[in-house]
């Protein structure tokens, strides 16, 4: 009985450490977050084990420099006190030398992998380098992880890139006549109908003309969005709420003063029955609001709350019209 | 149309679920941002966000929604800090190493704990007794602040293996120091 109890304790400690490490890495999805919550709530001992592991993790993080130094000194223990500083440097140099030897150039030819999402489909792709791509509906992109760079070609669609930090291998995204260069960050790239938008949530990215194209290069910071029309030299950078732009990953489309036509174009990536606007004035009407993307009828009903529209349905699709102004 | 602007009622089920889970959410924040004080702060901000949320945001799974908003609250905070001149220190770094940074150091109880030489010696000894690979991964990541991916590259092993090593190291250290 004693041993069973100890086993339970040990397993709990293992789970607790694993959760701490996963949370600290910051790559926890929604499903995992819910699983984490359920695990914590399952037993008070789980929460205690988590607190203990987290406290140890925080202590080591806070004392990182002191512990590192002491570990280096320990390794060099037999040396007289006066040589300590020199040996600490020596140990670091040795570590660096090992790092160079240990990271060989893998000359295996890198292969491109293509990922495609259909209408209404969203998909999360985890790359071997630790980066995560969330693909929105109607997206096609290919990935090549080479030893000198990580390359993505966005043919069309929209994706959020959560890029693992890797100083030696820049992350490059080719999107039409612009190339986006990343070191380690999270951002959204959208390329539809000749229009490119890049929104940064964390870190920084560079957007520059691809080879052969003209225009200025930009460095984007969190909360900035770059808009560009392909073929044009002009590029615009505006302030935006990144978490709203990235909301599509949880089925939420957030708009601030965006033409209804653009909203409809987004919705048409989600549902097979197309929505159409024939009236250009209506298509240009700016709308603001949050749309949950669940089923098409419900979405159109919610859209009607944001802008006065009426709908005409046929087998070919749904046509949006201006609602007859009431009370005037 | 009127329901668009209607505030959530006094007995908002989502807020009740939040209150039930508050300790869990504080843990979630504490692990993500590396500071208990900041975690409490973020939990409070989350409450305000939930209480004033857009009613068009409906929840099939309320717990998932709460964690989703929690993640957004952290993104907001990170962005605010970046704007406030915390430089382009990547969120990962802000989120991760804030305990070691001066601006929050004064509230890190961990600092007090290690202020005693004896405690530091315990930490060092426990870390020194880890198996070599485990120790190296732990050191590169936790002590020197490299990401999992960077650690994997330095060690020439996969990110998955790095995670396993760090996780096992933390488990061993907790078992040893936690009593």
Describe the overall structure.
The complex is a heterodimer of chains A (328) and B (179). With 328 residues, chain A is of the alpha+beta class. Chain A has three domains: 2-102, no CATH class; 112-240, Sandwich (Jelly Rolls); 251-322, Phage tail protein beta-alpha-beta fold (3-Layer(bab) Sandwich). Chain A is 35% helix and 32% strand. Chain A has nine helices and 18 strands. Chain A has helices spanning 2-25, 30-42, 44-62, 64-75, 84-102, 242-245, 260-267, 280-283, 296-306, and strands at 112-116, 123-126, 132-135, 140-145, 150-162, 171-175, 178-182, 186-192, 195-202, 205-209, 218-220, 224-229, 235-239, 252-259, 275-277, 286-292, 309-314, 317-322. In chain A, strands 1, 2, 3, 4, 5, 6, 7, 8, 9, 10, 11, 12 and 13 form a 13-stranded mixed β-sheet that branches. Chain A has a three-stranded mixed β-sheet with strand order 15-18-17. In chain A, strand 4 (140-145) and strand 5 form a beta hairpin. Chain A is globular. Chain A starts with a helix and ends in a 6-residue tail after the last strand. Residues 1-7 and 78-109 of chain A have low confidence and may be disordered. Chain B has 179 residues and is mostly helical. Chain B folds into two domains: 2-97; 116-177, Arc Repressor Mutant, subunit A. Chain B contains ten helices and no strands. In chain B, helix 1 (13-33) packs antiparallel against helix 2 (36-51) and helix 9 crosses helix 10 (159-177). The radius of gyration of chain B is 20 Å and the shape is elongated. At the A-B interface, helix 1, helix 2, helix 3, helix 4 and strand 16 of A face helix 1, helix 3, helix 4, helix 6 and helix 7 of B.
